């Protein structure tokens, strides 16, 4: 069989493009060896001091990007109110079901994948707490890094809750399979290649929060076009949280570039060489060992999150951090700068070639357990 390969927007690995039927792998395939070399604690120990010295700055410049609980939206603001009489509550549920009735199955595949990604939040808090110098040492530490991480988690926690309840009420998805996928995913964890290194960790989160901002923004637009303005508002509201979080993480990296330009630039280049892997890359539903690739292929085809978005985010961050203008670096730092600043056009060129090959392939599809094993084109 002739394979057409495309640069995967999220895994950053080469995947068979549309037109290739995925070989069914045994379930044991999920117990594959780690995806990356197990490098740990790659930040030189003395650099812990950088984060210690930035605590005052973090308190002044990062924590204000959190929203006080009383000013935050809650899932209940968007959901049928269970305090209503049974009849009125059922009317609200019926209205929700009517609104979602016209949205296509493939839209639900992407929304479910996004929801599952949000719902594996324990993994992300764990991941951030692997980072040297910024982890929450006690579980209730007063360090601004730890305060941020806990409050960020608490804000994020509303995303999965809201999407999951909405999907449940819609009746369009197989909740049992979704719940199994969440359990598998939290059990599997994630492997972003951040090596306990907060330089790498905050580059990752800057990129990742922008990626979720983009994808929730796109599911909002599609919900609106598909006839569900409430779901559009839900996805849009979640997107604006992601944007605020992206600003916070982006500010941290900006500050690191100012404090330690070589270290920060090399961290950006390192993460880009590894490619930014989406947090849910180890998802599994007990049936499809290539579930994440299939979900990503649908997200790519619908334009919810694409290889172009990946390049856009990279170029956005290069501009936001003014990477071309960073000075005062060692030779290594300058080489990292050169690599990162030229990467956008290279990714786009690779993608163009892959797209052209993909166009010549015949279309294929797969079944998703999340939507009762209905078939969706990839
Ligand atoms: Fe989120
Ligand atoms: Fe987020």
UniProtKB/TrEMBL annotation:
It comes from the Eukaryota. Fe cation 2 binds at residues 156, 209, 242, 245. GO terms for biological process: fatty acid biosynthetic process. Fe cation 1 binds at residues 118, 156, 159, 242. One of its GO terms (molecular function) is metal ion binding. GO terms for cellular component: chloroplast stroma. It is found in: Plastid, Chloroplast. PROSITE patterns: FATTY_ACID_DESATUR_2. Binds 2 iron ions per subunit. Binds 2 Fe(2+) ions per subunit. Keywords: Chloroplast, Fatty acid biosynthesis, Fatty acid metabolism, Iron, Lipid biosynthesis, Lipid metabolism, Metal-binding, Oxidoreductase, Plastid, Transit peptide. Its cofactor is Fe cation; Fe(2+). Its EC number is 1.14.19.-. It is an enzyme of class 1 (oxidoreductase). The keyword Calcium does not apply. InterPro entries: FADS-2_CS, Fatty_acid_desaturase-2, Ferritin-like_SF, RNR-like. The keyword Lipid metabolism applies. Transmembrane segments: none annotated. Introduction of a cis double bond between carbons of the acyl chain. PANTHER family: ACYL- ACYL-CARRIER-PROTEIN DESATURASE-RELATED (PTHR31155), STEAROYL-[ACYL-CARRIER-PROTEIN] 9-DESATURASE 6, CHLOROPLASTIC (PTHR31155:SF31). Belongs to the fatty acid desaturase type 2 family. Homodimer. This is Acyl-[acyl-carrier-protein] desaturase. It comes from Tetracentron sinense.
């Amino acid at each position: 069989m002739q394979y057409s390969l495309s640069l995967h927007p999220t895994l950053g690995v080469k995947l068979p493009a549309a037109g290739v039927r995925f070989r069914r792998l045994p379930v044991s395939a999920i117990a594959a060896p780690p995806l990356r070399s197990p490098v740990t604690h790659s930040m030189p120990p003395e650099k812990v001091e950088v984060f210690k010295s930035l605590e005052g700055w973090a308190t002044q410049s990062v924590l204000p990007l959190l929203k006080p609980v009383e000013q935050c939206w809650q899932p209940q603001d968007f959901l049928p109110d269970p305090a209503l009489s049974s009849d009125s509550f059922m009317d609200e549920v019926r209205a929700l079901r009517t609104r979602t009735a016209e949205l296509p199955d493939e839209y639900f595949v992407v929304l479910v994948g996004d929801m599952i990604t949000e719902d594996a939040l324990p993994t992300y808090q764990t991941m951030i707490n692997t980072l040297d110098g910024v982890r929450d040492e006690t579980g209730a530490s007063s360090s601004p890094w730890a305060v941020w991480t806990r409050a960020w988690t608490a804000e994020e926690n509303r995303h999965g809750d809201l999407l999951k309840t909405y999907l449940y009420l819609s009746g369009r998805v197989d909740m049992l399979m979704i719940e199994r996928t969440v359990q598998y995913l939290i059990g599997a964890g994630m492997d972003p290649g951040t090596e306990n290194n907060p330089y790498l960790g905050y580059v990752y989160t800057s990129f990742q929060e922008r990626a979720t901002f983009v994808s929730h923004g796109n599911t909002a637009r599609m919900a609106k076009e598909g006839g569900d303005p409430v779901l559009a508002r839900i996805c849009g509201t979640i997107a604006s949280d992601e944007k605020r979080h992206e600003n916070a993480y982006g500010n941290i990296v900006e500050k690191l570039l100012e404090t330690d330009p070589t270290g920060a630039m090399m961290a950006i280049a390192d993460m880009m060489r590894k490619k930014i892997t989406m947090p849910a890359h180890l998802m599994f539903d007990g049936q499809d060992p290539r579930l994440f690739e299939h979900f990503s292929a649908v997200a790519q085809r619908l334009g919810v999150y694409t290889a172009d978005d990946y390049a856009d985010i990279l170029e956005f961050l290069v501009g936001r951090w003014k990477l071309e203008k960073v000075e005062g670096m060692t030779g290594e730092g300058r080489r990292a700068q050169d690599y990162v600043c030229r990467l956008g056009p290279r990714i786009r060129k690779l993608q163009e070639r892959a797209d052209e090959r993909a166009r010549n392939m015949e279309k294929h599809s797969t079944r998703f357990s999340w939507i009762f094993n209905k078939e969706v084109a990839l």
